[in-house]
Amino acid sequence: MFFAMALLHNLDNFVISSSKKVNLYLELEKTSDMNMIIKELKESHVDISDLEIKKAGLVNDKGPALLINFNLPKKQSRSETLDKLTTLDGVLFAEIL
Q: Considering the domain boundaries, does residue 58 fall inside one?
């Protein structure tokens, strides 16, 4: 039983990490930073399928929070995309869900 649970956990992690569909949560300093995020994603050739804007996030209660669902191109990794976005000015918090 323990072996099956461990195996399924590892399989689940592999499937999620190799998936090209990404659900990303971002918190920004101000609303004007959203344009920069969307521009960066388009320059990375990702296909944005859904974008949800919330008024306030957990870290910053004044700036917006974004929930973005997108598909990665074949040659780009999830961590690479997250690293690019977290280095942008105005991004306070980023996490892949």
A: yes
Q: Does residue 10 fall inside a structural domain?
A: no
State how many domains the chain has.
1
Q: Please identify which residue in the block is written with the tokens 């917006």.
A: 64
Structure tokens at 78: 């999830």
Query: Do the domain assignments include residue 81?
Result: yes
Q: With respect to residue 4, please indicate whether it lies within any of the assigned structural domains.
A: no
Per-residue pLDDT reduced to its tens digit, 25-71: 988 888 888 888 888 888 888 888 898 988 876 766 778 888 989 88
- State the Cα–Cα distance between residues 91 and 27, nearest whole angstrom: 6
pTM for the complete prediction?
A: 0.73
